[in-house]
Design goal:
By secondary structure, this protein is mainly alpha-helical. It has a domain of about 425 residues. Helices cover about 60% and strands about 0% of the residues. It is globular, with a radius of gyration of 27 Å.
Length: about 650
């Protein structure tokens, strides 16, 4: 009875507000395909996703975020509308969202209290014949046979808590078409997956597990072997993140520039610069706020847990809630300061030290956008040469972050170069005045059909040999990426001793071993995968694609989960199983791992479908609203000769 009354009140409020809201001046809808594209390809990461290309795995989140009729992000109003109409729209939109939010909160809490009593009914429905299901009042009724779609529909507002991979699929729905660079999503997802294992290993094991195999007399564990050790290594994954970010942020501007659409390429660069800060820091703002509340409630672990690499990561605890939030606000503003010249400002953000990469992402993104704007009109091969020299200069001077981003842009440009995109504008005409690309196409069309009918055996063998060589190069990059860090015995690890001796003199004097081989290996790894379709299939599998879909949220959430709930689960499990033998301790770690991964996956999926999707659409809408229309008028500015 009470539930029905609250539902009626919510419907009445909506009916009273919406007619006034709908009578406001008409608006243009944001292109949903653009939102899907932006959500799919902005890679930050970790890198977030940008206007560059990547998979379309985020269409569910964007469609849900763009379909809410009363949301702020769903409207792109005409620029010629009066200021009074804009003000009225914002006021009514704020009132509507506030009223519906206040009414929905008690409904959710009330139904959450009734959920244990409803579980018995839902269990009965699961055991009943599928023909007995009827969902007349369901807000979302998936079409399809079976008990789970009907049961999912009966969950109503609790559908939001169900991970996206458990949502029923409508029969006959065509599979999502992957973008040509969808493998970048999978590679980013795998890297984020291994980053979680790295930070969890710091809570479960000592630093000795991260030493190179054979570097000490006790360093002979299977997990310490080359390539195998990447499962718990963090710095190599960060290097891969940065290369992917440089590639992804360059995809759309370079593609448009090579197609001769220079003005559109400039618009893509402008949009990326405007939205980058919001894209990177909106979601960390909310996640770190939750971490501040957990800190005030003293929910971070730090008791009775010794012998591990990092026993706790407790942010500073204040004596009052206001003091805690004030400290969090100052710390976050220091990290998110776009005018700071320090790349290491994220190291001092105690509410999640894993977010030290975000300021680096932002600063290097701005540098990359500047390079794109400077070389937007240059010929592609000139641009590749200039960017390669600039990347090499950065590497030799130990600007390894800049090298990774610049190298990602070079790989993206080479990707289009090998595809032949824009080749007609970069090659001179032949003796007959016909461009070389056109002449080659005409020659191909006039070639005998017997030669083009099927590849010869020699061509197939040549392709197989190249594929094998690329796979060997992939393994070599993994081996080089597995080099232990300088503080973990790299100079004493068999197989890497010679590589340490070959280190450039400048890097030796600065003790920058980690900033030479790892960046080179990360660039070689991404370039090899980009040129090898057989390797790309590994990362276009649904599981890596799903990890890529939730990678940014997983990167931001996992640290708080590990050192709060994961710390508590490990201590409680160890108290039950004991720690006298390796098997007992291993069982306790397994229990903690199950808890950490279950909570991390569910929260990351939820955050991706809600916070992350809104952050992408919010930045896009703000940019569209604040942009002025382009006018085709003669240039009145004086020009110098």
């Amino acid at each position: 009875m009470a539930n029905a009354s609250i539902r009626s009140l919510r419907r009445w409020a909506s009916s009273q507000i919406m007619p006034v809201y709908d009578r406001l001046p008409a608006s243009e809808q944001v292109d949903e395909s653009d939102l899907k594209h932006d959500m799919a390809v902005e890679i930050a990461s970790m890198s977030g996703r940008s206007d560059s290309g990547s998979s379309g795995s985020s269409s569910d989140s964007n469609s849900s975020s763009s379909s809410s009729s009363g949301s702020f992000s769903g409207y792109n109003h005409p620029r010629h509308r009066s200021l009074l109409a804009r003000l009225l729209h914002l006021i009514f939109a704020a009132l509507y969202n506030l009223l519906t939010g206040l009414i929905s909160l008690p409904i959710f809490l009330f139904r959450l209290l009734l959920l244990p009593f409803r579980l018995g009914r839902l269990t009965t429905l699961c055991c009943a014949p599928s023909s007995s299901f009827s969902t007349p009042h369901a807000s979302h009724t998936p079409v399809g046979p079976g008990r789970w779609p009907a049961l999912f529909a009966r969950l109503e507002e609790f559908q939001l808590l169900v991970p996206s991979f458990l949502h029923p699929v409508v029969p006959g729905t065509p599979p999502k078409k992957l973008h040509p660079t969808a493998y970048l999503d999978g590679l980013r997802g795998v890297a984020a997956f291994l980053v979680v294992w790295h930070h969890a290993s710091l809570l479960w094991f000592s630093w000795s597990i991260h030493h190179g195999y054979g570097s000490d007399k006790d360093a002979h564990l299977f997990i310490q072997l080359p390539i195998i050790r990447l499962a718990i290594a963090g710095p190599p994954q960060v290097s891969v993140f940065f290369v992917i970010s440089g590639y992804a942020l360059s995809y759309k501007p370079l593609r448009l520039s090579r197609q001769g659409r220079v003005a559109e390429a400039g618009e893509a660069i402008h949009s990326g610069v405007f939205r980058r800060h919001m894209r990177l820091f909106l979601m960390p703002l909310l996640v770190s706020f939750v971490a501040a509340i957990l800190t005030y409630l003293d929910l971070y672990g730090g008791k009775d847990w010794k012998g591990v690499a990092i026993s706790t990561r407790r942010p500073p605890q204040a004596g009052s809630l206001w003091g805690q939030l004030s400290h969090w606000a100052r710390s976050f503003l220091t990290m998110a300061n776009p005018l700071s010249a320090s790349l290491s400002r994220g190291m001092f953000f105690m509410y999640d030290q894993n977010e030290w990469t975000l300021p680096v992402e932002f600063d290097m993104s701005m540098m990359l956008f500047l390079c794109q704007a400077a070389l937007n009109r240059t010929r592609p091969r000139i641009r590749i040469m200039v960017m390669s020299c600039l990347a090499l200069f950065a590497l030799l001077n130990i600007h390894w972050q800049a090298f990774l981003f610049l190298a990602g842009m070079v790989i993206c440009d080479l990707h289009f170069e090998f595809q032949g995109l824009g080749v007609a504008t970069t090659r001179p005409a032949d003796t007959n005045g016909m461009p070389v690309a056109t002449a080659l196409s005409a020659a191909t069309l006039t070639a005998p059909t017997t030669m083009a009918s099927a590849p010869s055996a020699r061509a197939r063998h040549r392709r197989y040999r190249w594929t094998i060589c690329k796979c060997l190069c992939f393994v070599a990059c993994l081996y080089l990426l597995s080099i232990p860090e300088d503080g973990h015995g790299a100079a004493r690890t068999p197989g890497y001793v010679t590589l340490v001796r070959w280190l450039p003199a400048h890097h030796k004097s600065q003790r920058a071993l980690d900033n030479w081989y790892m960046p080179l290996a990360a660039v070689g790894l991404v370039f090899t995968i980009d040129r090898t379709p057989a390797l790309q299939r590994i990362f276009t599998h649904p599981f890596p694609q799903y990890l890529g879909y939730i990678s940014y949220s997983m990167y931001l959430i996992h640290g708080t989960v590990i050192f709060t709930l994961g710390h508590w689960a490990a201590r409680k499990a160890a108290a039950v199983t004991g720690t006298d033998t390796q098997w007992q301790y291993g069982l306790a770690v397994s229990v903690s791992a199950v808890v950490v991964w279950a909570v991390t996956i569910v929260l990351s999926d939820l955050a991706t479908r809600t916070i992350d999707a809104k952050a992408v659409s919010f930045g896009r809408v703000i940019y569209e609203r604040w942009s002025q229309p382009e006018k085709e008028e003669p240039d009145l500015l004086p020009r110098t000769r």
